[in-house]
């Protein structure tokens, strides 16, 4: 639900009552991952999406029911071969969802309000909620901060609260959203409780070295993908805000010197577009020894070979060189700066998500991969303005099952 933080925080401040449906787990070819959310207020206004349109109508009804009953419920939507017109996912996957009312005396309202406020301020926090277990615990929440301090409670006693907080803090440190299995006493034993942890961390960084025309297009692509984009170049005449309006930062400094003093982490993407040895070699020597997600460099194959020779002479090992994506980008036949930026962005996504880069047409590669296999640290799209709400009517009404274990939903 934190992907709707700006809108939901505004609703909370306005005193609106609303219900939130949050994707807890997915199976098969589901269109959206854990943490995706749809919310409905008491007036019927809708924001967000959980399936790209497949089950939104039924989820809308479930949210209205949760507002009426004041109780959290779980639901599973799947695909039925027997009834092609049943509410479900046409892509053939499954989605488990938690539907939680937020308003009035709702148990988790205060914690959820704090989580939304922290997300809007871009404070690193993790929101942990019970999504499987005794009905009385569903939707109970903890807000966990990087130092381990937490607010709220999941209703199972201090030992369980401490265990949930510890697991949430571990996911927060890696910027991941996912589920954790715990027993009712707080030990990590599957089969008792399932906790969804949504991590709210600053957007991952993309640092583009080289204030060239390709960098301007790549800054736009990086911003679109949800990165905090920095453009760095040692030449002040080129590294200007006017030339890079889509970058969050424009830095005038020698690339290797800036890299040494700036912060990077396991989600950081480094794109070297200078293709000039006096910049590239000291920069890449440092970059290839950092635990970052991606290091790529622009240049022809001849430039690539010469650069590798120079890096070896500087003591860069063969193992370190295998981390270098060069020439950077996928083979799209790109010519313009915008096409080149697209090819680079496509390679970054493929590396992060474990994609092959081959056309899906005629291939048997999976369209959606397990987030846990590839880090699960997806950046959220940048939201410069909150999205406008819309109203909708549920196309297929059905009652949510209040049992703790989700079921396949095939109304009819």
Give me the side-by-side strand order of the main sheet: 17-3-2-1-5-4-18
What's the helical proportion of residues? 25-40%
Radius of gyration: 23 Å
Structural class determined from secondary elements: alpha/beta
State the distance separating the first and last CA atoms. 29 Å
Overall 3D form: elongated
Q: Largest sheet at a glance?
A: 7 strands, mixed
Q: Give the topology string: H per helix, E per strand.
A: HEEEHEEHEEEHEEEHEEHEHEHHEHEE
Unreliable spans? 80-90, 371-412
- pLDDT average, as an integer? 83
Number of helices: 10
Describe this structure in words.
- By secondary structure, this protein is α/β, with parallel strands linked by helices.
- It is 28% helix and 22% strand.
- The protein has helices at residues 5-13, 56-69, 109-120, 158-174, 213-224, 255-261, 277-287, 301-313, 318-321, 337-353; strands at 18-27, 37-41, 45-48, 73-77, 94-102, 125-132, 141-144, 150-153, 178-182, 193-200, 205-209, 228-233, 249-252, 269-272, 294-297, 324-325, 390-391, 408-409.
- The strands form three sheets. Strands 17-3-2-1-5-4-18 form a seven-stranded mixed β-sheet.
- The two termini are 29 Å apart.
- The model is unreliable at 80-90 and 371-412 (pLDDT under 50).
Summarize the topology.
Blueprint: H1 5-13, E1 18-27, E2 37-41, E3 45-48, H2 56-69, E4 73-77, E5 94-102, H3 109-120, E6 125-132, E7 141-144, E8 150-153, H4 158-174, E9 178-182, E10 193-200, E11 205-209, H5 213-224, E12 228-233, E13 249-252, H6 255-261, E14 269-272, H7 277-287, E15 294-297, H8 301-313, H9 318-321, E16 324-325, H10 337-353, E17 390-391, E18 408-409
């Amino acid at each position: 639900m934190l992907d709707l933080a700006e809108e939901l925080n505004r609703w909370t401040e306005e005193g609106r009552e609303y219900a939130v449906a949050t994707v807890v787990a997915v199976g098969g070819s589901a269109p959206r991952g854990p943490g995706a959310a749809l919310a409905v207020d008491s007036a019927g206004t809708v924001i967000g999406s959980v399936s790209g349109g497949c089950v939104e109508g039924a989820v809308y009804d479930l949210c209205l029911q949760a507002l009426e009953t004041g109780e959290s419920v779980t639901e599973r939507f799947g695909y039925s071969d027997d009834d092609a017109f049943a509410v479900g996912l046409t892509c053939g996957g499954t989605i488990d969802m938690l539907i939680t009312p937020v308003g009035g005396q709702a148990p988790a309202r205060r914690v959820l309000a704090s989580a939304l406020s922290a997300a809007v301020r871009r404070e690193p926090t993790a929101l942990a909620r019970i999504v499987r277990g005794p009905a009385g615990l569903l939707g109970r929440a903890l807000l966990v901060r990087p130092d381990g301090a937490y607010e709220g409670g999941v209703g199972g006693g201090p030992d369980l609260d401490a265990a949930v907080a510890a697991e949430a803090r571990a996911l927060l440190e890696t910027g991941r959203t996912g589920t954790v299995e715990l027993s009712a006493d707080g030990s990590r034993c599957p089969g008792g409780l399932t906790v969804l942890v949504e991590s709210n961390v600053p957007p991952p960084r993309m640092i583009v070295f080289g204030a060239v025309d390709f960098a301007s297009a790549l800054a736009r692509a990086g911003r679109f993908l949800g990165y905090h984009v920095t453009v760095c170049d040692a030449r002040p005449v080129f590294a200007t805000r006017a030339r890079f309006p889509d970058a969050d930062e424009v830095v005038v400094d020698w690339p290797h010197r800036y890299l040494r003093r700036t912060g990077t982490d396991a989600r950081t993407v480094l794109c070297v577009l200078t293709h000039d040895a006096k910049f590239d070699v000291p920069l890449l020597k440092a970059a290839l020894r950092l635990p970052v997600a991606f290091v790529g460099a622009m240049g022809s194959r001849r430039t690539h070979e010469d650069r590798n020779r120079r890096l070896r002479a500087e003591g860069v090992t063969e193992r370190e060189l295998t981390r270098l994506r060069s020439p950077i980008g996928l083979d799209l036949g790109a010519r313009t700066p915008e096409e080149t930026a697209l090819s680079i962005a496509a390679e970054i996504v493929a590396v992060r998500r474990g994609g092959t880069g081959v056309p899906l047409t005629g291939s048997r590669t999976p369209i959606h991969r397990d987030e846990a296999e590839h880090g699960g640290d997806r950046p959220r799209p940048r939201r410069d303005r909150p999205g406008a709400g819309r109203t909708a009517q549920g196309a297929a009404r059905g009652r949510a099952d209040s049992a703790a274990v989700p079921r396949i939903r095939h109304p009819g």
